Amino acid sequence: MSTLPPLPAASDSKEAERLPERPRGRAAARLLPPTRLTGPIPWVIAILIALVVIAAAGGLALRNLATSANAGLSRAVSVQVIEPNPDLRAARGAAAVKVLTAIEGVQAVRLVPEAELTAMLEPWLGEGAASGDVPIPALIDVELTGRAGPAEIARIETALAAEVPGARVDAQGDWLRPVQDALTALQYLAFGLIALVALATAAAVWLSARNAFAAARETVEIMHLLGASQRQIASVFLRDVVREAAFGAVVGGLAGVGAVWLLGRQFAALDSGMVSGGGLMLTDWLAIAAIPLAGVLLALATARITIALALRDMP
Amino acid sequence: MSDRLEGHVKFDNVGLRYGTDPEVLSNLSFTLFPGSFYFLTGASGAGKTSLLKMLYLAQRPSRGAIRMFGQDLVTMPQSRLPELRRRLGVVFQNFRLVPYLTAFDNVALPLRLAGTEEKKVVKAVGDMLDWVGLSHRAHAVPPTLSGGEQQRVAIARAVIARPKMLIADEPTGNVDPDMAQKLLRLFEALNHRVGTTVVVATHDVHLLKKVPDSLIMRLHKGQLSDPTGALRYPPRDSGVSGSGAGSVSGSGAGSA
Q: Rounded distance, CA B248 to CA B232, Å?
């Protein structure tokens, strides 16, 4: 034990004193205790990511639904001709169609056939809808070239007033305004939920990084006193944080997408015209696919800040 | 100015207090020169460990100035301290080995932190473990090693990167007299063959006589005294210091 061995090549030289960016490969693997994905944090992250995916999918579907409904109805106008006498009603309906067709800015006019109206009302009125005992107004669907605003409605009413007095003109969008307001509120709720879950994810990662740091404090102090830079120490911790976050993100992302797909199938089975407008587009799926990645980046940033703050207390 | 002239370490009127407590170290002024062998003595609670902590950069002073390897430690940004720490080898009183790493990996830590190529690490650590007589225990983890074996692993880790200065806190406190003697020979070998400055804190007065060229700094109630003339300034040419490299200068305000 009295004869010193030859000098290691990199020691006692400038090379040994310079600070490498971070330990790599096996060297990094040997600096901190080997960790396994046994703690609750990867699963907590998985649950949170799944919730974000579901909330985001819901928010995007509601946005699509609102956009689709708005696009379909914003240019649509309904004209009702209320007349108990069926013959007179048919004549006044035809007159209204003639007037409407001549109005500038009207793209299409369709007199809804009586059979279609009867079928539409049958669920509410039963067979009585077809009996003729209940007077059903003539209904005309009008599609404008532009948005059906109050001015357009007033113009149509004025044009109809002479030929078809008493005809009732409504912008179809007005009927859906409360629904659209509700959809907008639900969208805000979904995005608020995403923000809250993102905060919860950051908090979970912060706790995880802080606990991991506290558990390895003795080792970190030893590394610190042996000349490890803050960046080296942080990078070793970040490696584990990224691993745990990536695991949680993949599991949570798959679970969330699976849940969204199942929900989509359930809603598709309703075969409702309105619900079908709430389908997800390719860009929506891409945005959803980016959520797990964003989760990992959020975890990385949170852990980096947490560890930097903890290391700041060391001399 | 070179280290030879200025010294590896220069303390100028340094004081240290923890929080708002009274100073545990006061008015320390001394210079440690390259290639010298120092003993730091004093009773328990005299402040040896606190002084060593400042030497191995685990503690900044509350007041005064410290220069190490020509650089001002007080104003140095935290991000540059690791560079200096890599020039130091430290044997902690309680070894501070990483419990889940093998003896091999513990000794390899300084080289891996320095980014040394793994092939070179394997060779250097193998040689070093051979040097301290622990080749056969290379894959044992610290809890399974005896106190003396842990001590030798700690020493191997401290010297593997050939530090400019080796700081040891009570390195013989946990080993039998024979092992203590061997460890001292090991430090001397490092001091003579590599030129490493060695600072050994001990309360064992018998140890002081076993390294003939050594210089002694004595701490008493947080102040340095100068039993061997080691802290006298200008340094005397002969006498206790013995070796040319062993000139130590200082003006310990606490000099008795």
A: 8
Which chain A residues are Cβ-neighbours of B123 within 8 angstroms? 8
Taking the CA of residue B230 and the nearest CA in chain A, the distance in Å comes to 28
Q: Where are the beta strands (DSSP E) in B53-191?
A: 63-68, 71-72, 88-91, 165-169
Return left, alpha or beta for B30; rule: phi > 0 is left, psi -120 to 50 is alpha, else beta: beta
Burial class (CB in 10 A: 0-12, 13-18, 19+), B6: middle
B210, B220 in Cβ contact below 8 A?
A: no
A167: three-class secondary structure by DSSP? coil
Q: Which residues of B touch A222 (CB under 8 A)?
A: 96-98, 109
For residues B137 and B141, what is the distance between their CA atoms, to the nearest angstrom? Answer: 9
Question: Can the peptide bond before residue B234 be classed as cis, meaning omega within 30 degrees of 0?
Answer: yes
Tell me which chain A residues have a C-beta less than 8 angstroms from the C-beta of B96: 218, 221-222, 225
Query: Residue B197 and residue B214: Cα distance in Å, rounded?
Result: 11
Helices vs strands, H then E, count in chain B: 8, 11
Sign for the pseudo-dihedral over CA of B45, B47, B50, B52: negative
Residue of A nearest to B118 (CA): A27
A211-227, pLDDT tens digit by residue? 777 777 888 888 888 88
| 8 Å CB contact between A10 and B117 | yes
Per-residue pLDDT at B44 exceeds 70: yes
CB contact under 8 A, B128 and A19: no
Nearest to A228 among B113, B117, B162 (CB): B113
Chain centroid, CA A203 distance in Å: 22
Residue A285, amino acid? W
- Contact in structure between A208 and A90 (CB atoms under 8 Å): no
Q: Are strands B71-72 and B223-225 parallel, antiparallel or unpaired?
A: unpaired
Residue type for A21, please? Answer: E
- The mean per-residue pLDDT over the stretch A246-268 comes to 88
A7 to B162: CB separation less than 8 angstroms, yes or no: yes
Mapping DSSP to helix (H, G, I), strand (E, B) and coil, where does residue B202 land? coil
pLDDT tens-place string over residues A52-90: 999 888 888 888 877 877 776 788 888 888 888 878 888
Strands B215-220 and B37-41: parallel
pTM attached to this predicted model: 0.65
Rounded distance between C-alpha atoms, residue A160 and residue A154, angstroms: 10
What is the number of residues in chain A? 315
Tokens 């030289």 locate to A13
Contact B115 A23 (CB under 8 A): yes
User: How much of chain A is in helix, strand and coil states, percent to nearest 5?
Assistant: 70, 5, 25
Which residues 286-315 of A have a C-beta within 8 angstroms of B? 312, 315
**What 3-state class would DSSP assign to B74?**
coil
From the list A19, A31, A315, the residue facing B57 with the nearest CB is: A315
* Amino acid symbol at B226: D
Chain length of chain B: 256
Which amino acid would we find at residue A298? L
Q: Which of B83, B124, B160 sits opposite A17 (nearest CB)?
A: B83
pLDDT for B158? 92
